[in-house]
Amino acid sequence: LEEKKYIQLRELFIEAKAADLAELIEEVAEEHPNNTTIIFRLLPKDLAADVFSYLSPTQKRNIVDTLHENQLRNIVEELNFDDKIDFLEEMPANVVKRILKRVTDDERKLINQFLNYPEFSAGSLMTIEYVSLKKEMTVAEALQHIRMNGIDKETIYTCYVLNETRKLEGIISLRKLILADDHLKVAEIMDVDVISTTTLDDQEEVADLFKKYDLMSLPVVDREDRLVGIITIDDIVDVIEQENTEDFEKMAALLPSEEEYMNTGIFLLARRRIVWLLVLMISATFTENIIGRFEDVLSAVVILAAAIPMLMDTAGNAGNQTSTLIIRGIALGEIELDDYLKVLWKEFRISVLVGIMLASVNFVRMLLVSNASLAIAITVSLTLALTVIMAKLFGGMLPIIAKRMKLDPAIMAGPLITTIVDAMALVVYFNIAGMILGLY
Amino acid sequence: LEEKKYIQLRELFIEAKAADLAELIEEVAEEHPNNTTIIFRLLPKDLAADVFSYLSPTQKRNIVDTLHENQLRNIVEELNFDDKIDFLEEMPANVVKRILKRVTDDERKLINQFLNYPEFSAGSLMTIEYVSLKKEMTVAEALQHIRMNGIDKETIYTCYVLNETRKLEGIISLRKLILADDHLKVAEIMDVDVISTTTLDDQEEVADLFKKYDLMSLPVVDREDRLVGIITIDDIVDVIEQENTEDFEKMAALLPSEEEYMNTGIFLLARRRIVWLLVLMISATFTENIIGRFEDVLSAVVILAAAIPMLMDTAGNAGNQTSTLIIRGIALGEIELDDYLKVLWKEFRISVLVGIMLASVNFVRMLLVSNASLAIAITVSLTLALTVIMAKLFGGMLPIIAKRMKLDPAIMAGPLITTIVDAMALVVYFNIAGMILGLY
Q: Which element (helix H / strand E) includes B132?
């Protein structure tokens, strides 16, 4: 197929979806890196720009390196404004310079302004390609205006009503315009109670607004309420996945990163892992001291050591279950900070139920299957029930405390709770053992 | 504010957003459950239906119980078709009967058909309120048709071109229609290469299509390619969060559930937790046997027990990091099943790096801070490095194996990997201890 039949290929490509072509290029890149540029050059320039915006940063860089100055400029011109900004952010400085040299002064100023919005802010998500209307327009005039100006806008389905100083006075959906009488004024039917955000708001808050109000797009305003850009839902879907990935990573004791796993080098991946592993390892040496302190108990009854892993694992799992539910509940807005007493009371009752069930099963198992002595079976089962209760209370409290301290609750997940709960489990275990086995 | 000033309140409400009113009702419900119905009755019926669709299932049930037959019917009539189906699915059977008694035969048939689509399928997400066009219409006729019929449609921004047998021939966006010349035929400008799904497809696959192609809506067709409904992006945002929650829960050894934490009883919550805790607890007794088998090693050098918790925690964390990255990579489509050798090789190199660093820090710490003997420090550090490597290889492999066996990779997360890795860590530990300390 790849054998010089360029014309047929080109025809095939023109009918394909940009997302599929991007996928094709990524796949071809793995085996025949040289062919990617050939494929890319076969595309007409609007489609090429569209495909380009779907490519991974690595692949974008590869293609930029092989394109001529003119071709590159054509692609960049065709990109949507927000894709253009994303692209410039991903490229090395020399490529950015090359591109900025070719644009008009006004555009360069605008691009620089956008490049300066902090990562993960509303400003970094927005585009300037929106339709603006005036409130004295009639519906017919507004529709005519959209027809004349809509072609290169990111969306025409929501239009923004601005006054002479670009202050946002209202929004109106294309749906409302289409269904309204031609002679009505925009001012009469526009929605004046506009939900908006500012350039420096965090993208997570922006995503929450979209979810809460089922929005398709959201205006971004400055401190004087002047419209500076809009954010559309397609970018928000990516933000939601990104925020979820960040939570998954934090909950697994990883430093978050935006790079894809397969495209990241091992040193970077190792660095994201070593920090928390070191912290947790050193915290875990605390347990070493506890066991050291109870060495006499342990040497009197060595077999006590046998149950330590099971006790620790179960306590860790129990705490992890609770903290995950609470972290997720906070992230989705289902659990409020004021609910902490309710959470504690709920977790206490659940943990008593769960703790007693686990302890009973374990007690029977130890007596019947492991032939343990009654005293040891009681010691282990009692410890199990108590540590499950403690683990669930900690698992319920720590994420809420973190949130109150303006930290991300996600760091209070499995790994940290396991370390804390393990130490407590050992203290409980040896104290109960000492009492029941009469070692003191 | 709640003191009989109903007229002023009503005016306030009419200007508010439905999502905010729903939030208000949920809050009022916590303190004055009786007031919720009063608020709700103050709303005009289209707003009431809108607010209603934002409420939690519990709150919907409460309000339904207090409404008169007629009021209930008014609300149900105003609901969007997909919200109506969701509502009926959430209500107890007697309410559903009450409602179905009042609708026409045709509608009841349709509702029953929709209620029969399996949960989490494309069919359960779709709505029938779309705009259909014919391909011989001109752009002007199509726009006129949209103006006449668009008012009660879920979206008018994508229209569906059907033939006489309701077969889907193409789609066309309102944007294209607005920007096109009036005299063009729909057939000339419609998009014939339509991405669609079928009623029984899983909602996760549907969400992936939306993400991949940046869709706003997606047609659902039957086996004969006839259009049966459409799915819109606002429902997909909820699906994405739901699928992520499910993964979080599975990864924390919880049985997934759709109910909100605060509204779920403790018995149900306990049941979701006990299953995996029991399975994992019983698997962990495997470690008991291992320690039992090495009891002579342990009683010779009791202090060996002191390092067990640290070794197990670190191995568990290391495995957890990797499995989380791989599970997430698979879920987002960044890691393919064919990549398993690359993943293994990558994880091997990373784990060697990370393992050596952790072991070195631990070695120095044990010698300098804990005053351990050289032999013990070597035993523990060597075990640490080896178990970190094993943990990361297992963490990388198990999710991919699960996916190949058509299981959800998310179950191969922290808890399960910790249990497996703990057992391995102990075997390695005692064997190394036996060799280095010359106990055999």
A: strand B131-133
Given a cut of 60, is residue A440 above it in pLDDT?
Answer: no
List, in order, residues 6 or more apart from B132 with CB less than 8 Å away.
B159, B160, B161, B162, B227
Contact A318 B143 (CB under 8 A): no
- pLDDT tens by residue, B256-315: 666 676 667 767 776 777 777 677 777 767 777 777 777 777 777 767 777 888 888 888
Query: Is the pLDDT at A439 greater than 70, yes or no?
Result: no
Residues B266, B272: Cα–Cα separation, whole Å:
10
Fold of A261-436: Tetracycline Repressor; domain 2 (1.10.357)
**Count of A–B CB contacts within 8 Å?**
316
Query: In chain B, what are the domain boundaries?
Result: 6-116, 131-232, 261-436
Q: With beta carbons less than 8 A apart as the criterion, state whether A173 and A155 touch.
A: no
Distance from CA of B105 to the nearest CA of A (A): 30
Residue keyed to tokens 């006729």: B141
Cα–Cα distance measured from residue B437 to residue B433, given in angstroms and rounded to the nearest whole number: 6
Average pLDDT over residues A155-178: 87
CA of B101 vs chain A CAs: smallest distance (Å): 32
Residue with tokens 């934090």: A250
DSSP code of residue A127: B
The strand ranges marked E within B207-310 are 217-221, 227-232
Cβ atoms B152, B129 nearer than 8 A:
yes
ipTM: 0.71
Alpha helices in A32-104 (DSSP H): 33-42, 45-54, 57-66, 69-78, 81-90, 93-101
Residue A1 reports pLDDT greater than 70: no
Whether the CB-CB separation of B182 and B139 falls below 8 Å is answered with yes
Residue of B nearest to A209 (CA): B19
Task: Look up residue B252 and give its DSSP letter.
Answer: T
Give B97-136 pLDDT, tens digit per residue: 777 777 777 777 777 777 777 778 888 788 888 888 888 8
In CATH, the architecture of A131-232 is Roll (3.10)
Provide the terminal-to-terminal Cα distance of chain B, rounded to the nearest Å: 82
Second CATH level (architecture) for the domain B6-116: Alpha Horseshoe (1.25)
Q: What gap in Å lies between CA A237 and CA A42, rounded to an integer?
A: 31
Provide the edge-to-edge strand list for the sheet that holds B158-162: B131-133, B158-162, B168-173
Position B186 scores a pLDDT of 84
Token pair of A311 as six digits: 């006790």
Q: Is B138 helix (H, G, I), strand (E, B) or coil?
A: strand
Overall average pLDDT of the B223-248 stretch? 83
The strand order across the sheet containing A131-133 reads: A131-133, A158-162, A168-173
Asked if B306's CB is within 8 angstroms of A241's CB, the reply is: no
Distance CA B196, CA B59 (A): 35
Q: What is the DSSP letter of A323?
A: H
Query: What sign has the CA pseudo-torsion A374, A377, A379, A385?
Result: negative
B289 to chain A, closest Cα gap in Å: 7
